[in-house]
Amino acid sequence: MTTGAKDLWLFRIVHQDTGKPAQGVPVTVLDKAGNAAGYWVSDADGIVAIPRRDTAKLRIRVGLRSEDPIELATATLGDDPTPLAAPTQFPPSLSLASDRPAREHPAPLPARPAEQPEVPGHVLYFQRLAMFADRAAGDAPGGGGAPRGGVADFFSPVSDGPAGMRYGALIDVEEYWQSLGVLWGELLYSVTLTPGDEAKLAVLDGRWRREAEGRERPLQILARMVGTSMLGDLISALRPELQLDPLTLTEPGLEAAASDTVQLIRDRTERMSHALRRRPLGVVDAPADAPATGAVRHVRNTTRDRLVTFHFFEPLERFKVMVRSPRARPVIFVPFRLPNVATPDVVRRFGYLFRRTLLDRGLLPDLERLLGGDTVTAPDASRGRLLEHIESNLLYYSTVIISAGDPAARHVALSKLRDPAGRPLTDVVENTVVGRLGNTIALPLRSAAQLPAAWRDALAAYEARPLRVSDSFVVTIPHPGVWVSAQAHEPMQQQQADGEEAAG
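RESULT FIELD:
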C-alpha cells in the first residue's frame, strides 16, 4: 500500500538569506507534551514529507533541540510545499547528498580553524606517599617490627598496638591532557534500509559505570583506573587528587622516587586506556517492544528513491599527555587506634559521612532506615547487615571519620601528642589529612625544618632543581555512545535502468 500525495504534508526548508533549498535540516513533529512524535530530514530539494494527522494544529521544530518549536494550522496547509526557514546555524549533512559519492568509511571531522583559539586542556592530579625508612627502629609502618622470615597474615585485623611516628614526603603530580581531536573508531554495525523503512537498534555499552547522580567524564573514569580514592566518592568534594601506591625510601634522595612516579603514571595511563577500549561495546537489533531509552537508537531512511546504509562507529578522542615535574612536601605519619565505629550511635552521629562514602551502595536503604530513627532494641536483619559491613571495613570508615570529620575534634586529638623531637604536634603540622598508609594518617608539616637533617637536605636539594615537563605521549580513549553515519546509494530508478541497459 503506497502513500499518496493527499496523505502527506509537504514542506520546503529554505535558507533564510538566499531562499535556496536547505538540505540535511532535521524536522521534528512534537506532541502535546513536547516529546518527539516523528523525525525527518530535508532532501536535496529541501523537501520534507510528513504524514497527515487528525489534528487542528501541527507543532514542529526545524533544526536541533535548541530551536524553538512553531505551530501551524493544518487547515492552511495546501497541496503545494509550505516554505519554512532553516535555522541560521545548523550542522552540515554528513550524507544523503545526491551529488556526494558513496563511501565505505566516513571522512574525518573537519579540522579546527586556525583563527579559533586552542581549547584548554584537562589537568589530572595524583599523589603518592613516600615514607622515610627508620633504620634505627627497624619497624614496619603502623606497627611493631615483624620477625625476619615470618609469614605474612593478610586476613587478620590491622594491629592497633603502640607505634611511633614516622617522617615522609607527599609527591604531587599533575598530568596535563591536550585534545588532538576526535576520530572515528572501528565499525560496529551496518544496516541498509529501503525508502521509508526504519530500524531500532540497541547499543550495548559495558565500558561506563552508570549511577543515579549522573555519569563521569571519560577522563575522570580513566583517572580512577590509574589511581584510587582514599575516601571513596567524598574525595571529589574535598580534593581532586587521587592516590598512587605508596613507597618506602631507604636512602635520602627524592629524584629517583619522583622519576619512578612519573614513569608509573605514564605506564598506567597507557595500560588503562587500552583496558577501557577492551570493555564490551556492540550494536544489535533491538526487539520491537524495547522501551525508548538512551541505549536504543532509531534510524530511518527519509529518502524516496534510494537505499541508505547506516554505519555505527566507536567514537574516539586522541590526547597529547604531559606530566609536569612532581612537587614534594614534608609530612609526618601519625598512627591511630581503630575505634569501634560499627555501632548505631556512631553511625547516626556521622550519618552525613556514611551517606557519601558507603562502599556498598546497596546498603543505602538500610542506612537511611537507621538514620531515620530506628529505635528497635534488637537489631533487625537490615541493620545487622549494615553494621557487619562497617565492621569488616573498619579501617576505611575510621579514616573517613578522622579525615572528613570535625576539624576541631581532630585538633583536640592531635594536641595530646608530641612529635619525635618532643614538640606539640599541633605546633608543627597542618590540621589536614592528605593520605593514609596502613593505620597511620599523613599530616603536612608546616616547615621542612622539622625533618631529620639528612632528609631535610635531600628535600632542599630536590626543590632546588628546575621544574620541567616530561616527554609527551599520545593516548586514545573512547567516548560514551556511538556515532552514526548515513551512506546514500544511487537512485533505485537509475540502478534499474542500468540493469536493463546491461541486460539489453
